[in-house]
Amino acid sequence: MREAADGVPSVVAVSGDSGVGKSRLIAELQARESDQARFLRGECVELDGGELPYAPLIGALRELARARDPALDSIGADARCSLSALLPGIVPGDRASVDDDSAQLRLFEALLELLEALGETQPVVLIIEDLHWADRSTRAFTAFLAHNLRSERVMLLFSYRTDELHRRHPLRPLLAELEHGERTRRIALRPWGREELDEALADILGAQANDELLSRLFARGEGNPLYTEELLAAGLDGRGAAPQSLRDAFMLRLERLGADAQALLRVLAVARMADQELLAEIAGLSPSLVVPALREAVAGHIIEAGGDGRFSFRHALLREVAYEDLLPGERAAIHLKLAHRLEAQRRSAPTDDGLASQVAAHAQAAGDRPLALTSAIAAAEIASSIHAHGEAADLLERALQVWERMEDPQAVCGLDRAELLVRAAHEHEHIQQRARAEMMLRAALSEIDEGAEPVRAALVVDQLAMTQWGLARGDEALANARHALELLPPGLADGERAGVLAWIARVTALRGHYRDAVAAAREALDIGEASDAGAHTISQARNTLGMALAGCGHVEEGLEELRASLALAQRSGDDAYATFHAYGNLSDLLFVAGRTREGLAVAQEGLATVSPSLRSYHVWLTAGVAEIAFAAGDWPLAARSLVIEGRAIEGRWLINLRLRAAELALGRGHLEAAGRALEEIEELVGVSIEPQFHSGFGLALSDLRRRRGELEGARAAIQEALDRIEVCTDDAMRVAAIGAAGVAVEADIAQRARDLDDRDALRQALLEADIHMSRARAAAESAGPVEAVWVTTAEAELARALGDNDPKLWDRAAAGWESLDRAYLAARARWRQAEACVERGDRPAATCALTVALKRARALGSEWLAAEVQSLAARARLGASLELDAGADQPAPAIPQDPFGLTGRERQVLALVARGATNREIGAELFMAEKTASVHVSRILAKLDVRSRTQAAAVAHRAGIVGPPDAAS
C-alpha cells in the first residue's frame, strides 16, 4: 500500500484454504490503514442457476454513487456515461445504451479512470473478496485492471480459496496470467505451526496455554485459525465434548441458539443476505420475535449486520454448513418463497439489477420452471445492458434448458424459441464465441418459416452472415447476405434491405472488389434515402461508396462521398461508430491518393474528435496517424502514436498496430524488433480475410527477409501475399506496391545470380520480375499518383534486375515520392540512384544523390540506410566529399588509390575467395598458413564493408577487381 501511495500500483492476491484467515487479514489491514487510504470493498456472490454480474464492483462503488462522491464529477462525461451501466443515476436520463464490441472495454476504462480520480486525494485499495466465486465479467475486469495499472495510486487486493480451485476452475487461467505480472504479489496463508498456535492461544486466552491444551488443539484443529477458535468456543479446554470436524463445531454453535434464531438462520442460509423484514416474512415470525432472535445470533458471532441494514453470516463456511443441514424439501420451499418474494420486489423496483439474477437462481433451485424461465430472460436483458455479455449468454443458455422441460414455454415468457436462440447468439457474438453463435443462429433459422416470415428470416440470415465474416469465412458470409436480400424483395422492409446492402458493400470493399462494392453501396443509398433506413445506414453506405469509388480510380468523387458521410455522422450526434469510420477512411483515402499531409491532418483531427473512451476506435485512428506519419517522415510522431500502454488490444486492431511498429522498426534498421512485431501477428493475419493486412504483412516480411539476406524467403513472402489478396482484387495501390516489391526482390536475386554466373537462377529471376512488373503496370493503368510512382520504382528495379541500373529511372522515382511527401521511400530511391551513378562512372551525380540520401536518412533516424549510403560512398571513393557535403562534424579519412585500399596480396586472396576457396585452400595456393589466410580474409571483408565471403565476391566482381566466379563454386 505504501507503494501505491507513491504512484506505484500493485496487485496483491491473498490465498489459502477455508478458515485460514484471509478475510481477517484484509479486515485488519483496513482497520489499521483506514485513515491512510480509501478502501473500496466488494464480495463475489455464489449463485446456482443465475449470475450476478459485477457483484463485487457494484458493492464496492455503491456508496460512492449514493454519496455522489466528487470523484464522479471529476471524470469525463463519456466515462460517467459508461459507469451509469453499473451505477444508475450518476448521469441524467437512462443508462448508457451504446452497445458495440468495445462497450465492456469502455466500461473498464471508465472504472480505471474513476479509480485514478479517487487516488488523487489518497491511495485507493480495491478489495475483491472470494474471487473463486467471481462471475466472468468480474474476472475480465480483474485481468484488465492488473494489466493496465501504470502510475495510478491504486492497489488491487483480492482473496480466493485454494481448496475451491479444482482442475478446471475458471479462476485458474486468470491466476496463471496474473502471476507473470511484475506488480503481482501473492500472500499464501498457511495453517499455524505449533509455535504460532501457542502465540495465538496466549493472545486469545490472555494467558499461556498449557501443553495439554496446546497439543489437543493442534492435533484436532491442524493449525486452522477458524477451526481452532470454534474448538475453543465448543469447550475443548476441558469443559465440553470435542467436535470431530469444523462442520460439527459450527453445528454446535447453531444448535445452541433458540428455535426462532435457528429459523431465521435457515432462511438466511438460503438468501445469503437479507434484511429484517424479508427474514421475518419468509421464516413466518412476527416482528416482536424477530429482533430478539437476530440479537441472539449476532451476540453468538454467527451473523453480522452490514451498513445497508442487511444481515449475512459472519463467515461463508458458517452459511455453507447451515445450508447443507437443511432437508431437500425444506431447502426448496425456502428457495420458492424467496423467489416469489424477490420477483414481486423486482417488479416494483425494476432499477435493482441484482434482483433478477437472484430470482432466477432461487426459482431454478426451487424447481419453479415458469419463474426460472422468465427471470433468467429478464436477468439476461439486464446483464446485456451492463455489457456483461458472458453472463447474459449463460443465462439465456439456462433459459433454453428450462424451455425444453416445459409444455408451453412460449405462453409463459412471450417469446418463441427462435427469438431466444437469436438473443443468445447475439450475446455469444459479443464475447467472441462465434462458433457457438453460428450454431444457435442455424437452430433459430430451422424454427422460422421463410415463406411466412421473410423479414424475420432475412434478419437472422444477415446476422449469420456477420458471424461467419467474423469466423473468416468470407464466401459463406457474402452468400448468406445475398440470400437475406432475396428474402427481402424490393418494397418489403426497405430500411432493413438498405442495411443488408450497406453491409455487403462494406465487406466487398474490404476484400478489394471495389466495382461490386460501388454497385451495392449505390443501391443501399437509393433505397435508404427513400425509406426509413436511418442516418447510420446512409452514412455507412456513403462511407463505403467513397472508398470503393477511390479504389476504382475516381478519387475526387470518393472524397466527396466520404466528406458527406462524415458530415452526416456529425449531424446525427450520437453515432460514434459512423464518425470514427468516416474519419478513418477519409484520412486513409487522402493518404492513398498521395495527399499525405492532408491525410495526416484528418487522421489527427479524428483522433482529437473521437472520445478516448471509445477505445477500439481510438486505437485504430492512432494506428492511422502512425502509418501516415511514418510515410511522411515524422518518425517521432509515429513512435509516440504506437505507445499504447498495456491496454487490451487484440484482433484486427493488434494487427494494425504491429504492422505500423514493424514498418518503423524496419525503417530504423531494428530488424529484431520488426521480426518480433510480425511474429506476434502472423497467426492473426493468417486467418484474416482482409487484403489490407495480407499486403501490409507481405511487404514488411519481404523487406525484413531481404535485409537479412534471405532472398528466397523474401520471394515466398511476396508470393504468399499475392495469393492471399487474390490476383482479381481491384485494390490497385496494394497490388502496385506489392508488384514493385516483388520486382525489387527479383532484382536482388538476379544480381546475385549474375555475380555467381548462375544462368538458370538469373533466367528465373528475370521471368518473375517481368511478371511482377506487368502486374504493377496493370494495377496502375487507371489509378492515381501513388500507383504511378510505384510503377516508376518497379521499372527502376527491373532495370537493376536486367543489369542496366538506370539513374534516370531512380531519379524519376525519387522525385515522384518527394512530390507525394513520402520521405523514406524518396531517400531509398536516392540511394539506389547513387548506386546506379557509381556503376556508370558518374561521380558528381553519385555524390549529389548520396548527399541527399544521407541527409534524409539521418533526419529520419534510418540507421541502416545511412550505413548503406556511407558504405557505397566508401567503395566508390566518395566518402570525403560526401561527409563534407552532408555537414558531418569530421571528414572521412582519405581513401587510398585503390577503391577499397586492398594490397596486392589481398587482391590475390580475394580472387581465390571469389572462386569459393576455403582458408586452407588459399593457404596451400599462396604458400601461407591457414591462420594467415583467415586474417587476410577478415581484413578484406572489413575493407569491402561486407559480412560474408559471398558478398565480398559479388562486390569484387561488380567493381571489376576479379573476373566472374566459376558457377560450380
Polypeptide structure, described:
The chain has 49 helices and eight strands. Among the domains are: 187 residues, Rossmann fold (3-Layer(aba) Sandwich), CATH 3.40.50; 49 residues; 73 residues, Winged helix-like DNA-binding domain superfamily/Winged helix DNA-binding domain (Arc Repressor Mutant, subunit A), CATH 1.10.10.10; 229 residues, Tetratricopeptide repeat domain (Serine Threonine Protein Phosphatase 5, Tetratricopeptide repeat, Alpha Horseshoe); 73 residues, no CATH class; 55 residues, Arc Repressor Mutant, subunit A. By secondary structure, the chain is mainly alpha-helical.
Count of runs of 4 or more consecutive helical residues: 49
Shape: globular
- CATH topology heading of one domain: Serine Threonine Protein Phosphatase 5, Tetratricopeptide repeat
Instruction: Give the rounded overall mean pLDDT.
Output: 86
Structural class: mainly alpha
Question: Would you report the number of β strands?
Answer: 8
Tell me the strand order in the biggest sheet.
2-3-4-1-5
> Which homologous superfamily in CATH is the superfamily of one domain?
Tetratricopeptide repeat domain
Per CATH, which architecture of one domain? Answer: Alpha Horseshoe
Distance linking N and C termini: 69 Å
What's the gyration radius in Å? 36 Å
| Poorly predicted sequence stretches spanning 5 or more consecutive residues | 93-97, 888-897, 964-969
Specify the biggest β-sheet: 5 strands, parallel
CATH class of one domain: Mainly Alpha
Strand content: under 5%
Which percent range fits the helix content? 55-70%
